[in-house]
Amino acid sequence: MKNIPTLYDWVGGNETLENLTKVFYDKVLRDDLLEPLFKNMSAAHTKYVAHFIGEVFGGPPLYTQGDEGSHSKMVAHHIGKLLSEEQRQRWIALLLQSVDELQLADDPEFRSALVAYLEWGSRIAVINSKLTDNPLQQDAPMPKWGWGVPGGPYIPEA
């Protein structure tokens, strides 16, 4: 039986994710469509997003314990923002450009899991951005994302 790593381990852990979110948000702040949404983000925003993704991808609870975040708090940041489909697509495009630029794990299985998560999460963010109240209870569990249909990375059998 194969030893299947978490998405967090496969991508390279927290340092990799923090680097990714820094590179990504640098792009966001130079983007005419997205900059207005993020121009007032805190200095720690990139770290919090990296910790959130890391925890969702099977890493340690840096977001929920270290940052005192929760799934409900993450959703709350999107309430009332009225995000557009164009903004959602640009957000994904810039994030995937950043992934490519940093040459992160680019095997098809990881890319499939990453893109699936980004599509799922960004579409939920758009839905929640049209609400006036948070649909999640404060104790809602963090989402957990795995390899999906592929079941893990491609590891040729010897």
Note the topology.
Layout (H helix, E strand, L loop, with lengths): L6 H5 L1 H16 L6 H4 L6 H12 L5 H5 L4 H6 L8 H17 L6 H22 L29
Structure description:
This protein has 158 residues and is mostly helical. The chain contains eight helices and no strands. The protein has helices spanning 7-11, 13-28, 35-38, 45-56, 62-66, 71-76, 85-101, 108-129. Helix 2 packs across helix 4 (45-56) and helix 7 runs antiparallel to helix 8 (108-129). The protein is globular. It holds the Pfam family Bac_globin. This is Globin. Keywords: Heme, Iron, Metal-binding, Transport. InterPro entries: Globin-like_sf (IPR009050), Globin/Proto (IPR012292), Hemoglobin_trunc (IPR001486).
Quick recap:
InterPro entries: Globin-like_sf, Globin/Proto, Hemoglobin_trunc. The protein has 158 residues and is mainly α. The chain is built from eight helices and no strands.
